[in-house]
Amino acid sequence: MAHAKSIPVLDESELKDGEMKEVAFEQGKVLLARLGDQIHATSAFCTHYGAPLAKGVLSHDGQVTCPWHGACFNVCNGDIEDAPAPAGIHSFKAHVADGKIHVTAHPEYTLPANKSRPPKLSTTGFDAVGKGVIIVGGGAGAFHVMESLRENGYKYPITMLSREPHAPIDRTKLSKALITDASKVEWKSAAEMKIKFGTNLRTGVTVTSLDLVNRKVVIDGKDALTYDKLVLATGSTPRRLPIPGADCENVYTFRGIEDAKVVDAAAQKGKRAVLLGTSFISMELAVAMGKRELASIDVIGMEEVPFQAVLGKEVGQALMKYHESQGIKFHMQVKVEKIVVSEENDKLATGVVVNGETIPADFVIMGVGVAPATELLKGHVELEKDGGVKVDEYMRVLNVPNTVKGLYAIGDIASPPLFAGQGYARIEHWNVASNQGRALGQSIAGIPKVYKKVPVFWSAQGQQLRYCGYGVGFEDVIITGDAEKLKFVAYYVQNNRVIAIASMQNDPVMSKCAQLLRLGIMPSPEELRGGLDPLSIDISSQNSVAAQQTVSV
To answer: 0.90 exceeded by the pTM?
Structure first.
């Protein structure tokens, strides 16, 4: 690799306090960020999907948030602050001389293809002796626990036990693009996890029993492993409606690669699809299949419009109108009576009956929610009413005997305290699991980290829908822009404060609002109704309200 070079990249006068700029560095790009008198230089692109960070949001405490999916980095050192970033970014030396900002960097590291920084801890730092951490699960939370443990200096063994036959994947892509090759969406290969992260990944295995007092897990009824810390990241299981015909071979649920394979094979030109439920998974699949010239795509829902409970009636109506323009037919405010079984083959469904009408189908997909995968814990832990696991702010499992130590839960099964004092809740989203994993990894590594993140999620609904906060039980919705054109910002209000935000074609509003919620300075409903634009609020400079609040604490 070539030596580092020091190059003048910008006049100092062109970068004000609280500003970011993307500048050229030979063939690459560098992000400059100014915090007071300090100038920082990093990689210019998000390590998630490559978004230009200069179009994101900078906060006074050094966090830069990606404009697309809420990934967050520290501009002072390149570390990950928030998922879904799978890797940190490079941090370069910056100094001022003769009125110019100079950056010292290896030119190769400034190229988009090399935006990701290697993990800090090399294999020479691992200690193979000891019980270490066992992670049950192979999803996003599990991956981020592993990465965070190593990034924060954890040296002891890590074992990941996954039912799936592959390394952790970017599961969000499955319903959006029906990807069937796990290697195309793996965050790291099993070999890379072993070599770079010192993690023993065991795929295709099932934990069949636990001995929480003696800290043992049993795999497939025979192989016992001991641990110092046990992380339960078992995720969730898709629900099936308890109706006749639900067990037919061509009635599918959707979660993993194998599900993507069967839906991909079924969703061919001229076929008829029926989706039960208007969940985000259902509607993303409808979008993906809409590009395949199916004969028909019918969606059956119980609400008046899709997403009504999450996004409200006006946004749901606009999204429904868009999907109808793409040829999708909705049957709303109805209940599925049964699935019609073929007279020739009682293992095949031929239609779905609603309100006495039969909707023909070559295959059916149930997108009717998921249940926390906590069967393993029954008899060991007092579960919540919804089957989840209550945890504290450090993701430690609560409601267990005093003899049980070193037990944690993250992801779809975990119900931690919410960021804004809204009680405890399970939030079933990939990115939430990722951030819980990051916080827990840091805590286990010896640097206690409270999980207190603003939830972020996204969905492909014709345009990219972006959402932050926790809007369950909202009482009012303030909408700016044009929902019907899928170009809007929606603010969800409860007890006269904004608790969540959704946006389409308004980047980086969601990322900015996530930071405003984090900092506790989200505008009031009255201010928003009066026309205040969240993007106009200064949270970046050292003179900002956010910075002054921090100083006064």
So the answer is: yes
